[in-house]
Write a structure and sequence with these properties.
single chain; 239 residues; mainly beta; Immunoglobulin-like; 2 domains; 6-stranded mixed beta sheet; 4-stranded antiparallel beta sheet; 2 helices; 18 strands; 9% helix; 49% strand; binds 2-acetamido-2-deoxy-beta-D-glucopyranose
Length: 239
């Protein structure tokens, strides 16, 4: 009994060390270039074909989109997309693709399939995730002198992926101001985040400098938008 168990363990471990398809996980900023790296290791099998499949938000089922044959090279299955370039090497059993000018619609899962003899089809899946930087802006709500709390300004980070973190640095103003943040997610996976700055439009708040700070994976450094709170008198706005 023990001997049989040992034998099974042995067989399983040799199997695990045999043929492997190596892929990865790719994160790329919109407009950038992605390497969809895929190759087979530890096999002496013959490779007859490499097939690439993908599924995206628009086409959620795996579809063949590119095949690579030793003689003909890469062939698009349906429409041609020259942003894809085969940069692997068939003889090295390397199916690596390069995708340039990556767009949000390319996000999804890419599968490379190696058709090997005698072991059959071997595959691995490579998720492609996009980072989309936001459009950022501050809008002054033109508050007028008064004693009730009003909206001073909104700071917007529009259409980012993943969602942006948006906050206000209000320094010495402390609890004289208040902020709220809300966000809306769109079907294409991007999010718009809006942070609002509220306070009582008193004279002593006029001229104070604050900053809206936007951060997220899509930016190599934090973005900071300066804003000067201006409390207007009614007549200034009428002019
Ligand atoms: C596969 O091809 C890519 C692109 O040419 C290369 O960067 C990578 O090192 C290759 N991988 C192996 C294991 O040969
Ligand atoms: C966030 O809330 C503000 C009001 O505070 C509203 O005007 C705006 O439409 C909301 N924005 C989003 C993206 O939900
Ligand atoms: C995502 O969808 C929103 C809302 O429809 C749109 O405004 C935005 O441009 C889209 N973003 C991209 C990168 O396609």
């Amino acid at each position: 009994m023990t001997r049989m168990l040992l034998m099974i363990v042995f067989l399983m471990s040799t199997d695990a060390e045999a043929l492997r398809v190596i892929g990865g996980n790719v994160k790329v900023v919109q407009g950038g270039t992605a390497m969809l790296s895929c190759y087979v290791m530890d096999t002496n099998d013959d490779l007859t074909q490499i097939t690439w499949q993908r599924r995206t938000r628009e086409k959620p089922h795996n579809d063949n989109f590119l095949t690579i044959l030793p003689r003909d090279g890469p062939q698009f299955v349906s429409e041609r997309d020259d942003r894809f370039k085969y940069i692997g090497n068939f003889n090295d059993k390397n199916g690596t693709l390069q995708l340039s000018n990556v767009a949000l619609k390319d996000e999804g899962s890419y599968t490379c399939i190696f058709t090997l003899f005698p072991s059959g089809n071997q595959k691995t899946e490579i998720p492609l995730n996009l980072l989309v930087p936001p459009f950022t802006s501050i809008k002054d709500n033109l508050p007028t002198l008064g004693t009730e709390e009003v909206l001073f300004a909104t700071c917007t980070a529009a259409g980012s992926k993943p969602p942006a973190e948006v906050r206000w640095l209000t320094g010495a103003l402390g609890d004289k101001v208040r902020t709220t943040t809300n966000s809306t997610q769109y079907d294409n996976g991007t999010t718009t985040t809006v942070s609002s700055l509220f306070g009582v439009p008193m004279r002593e708040i006029n001229g104070h400098q604050v900053q809206c700070v936007i951060s997220g994976d899509f930016l190599s450094k934090v973005e900071s938008l300066p804003f000067t709170i201006q409390v207007y008198c009614e007549y200034q706005l009428l002019m």
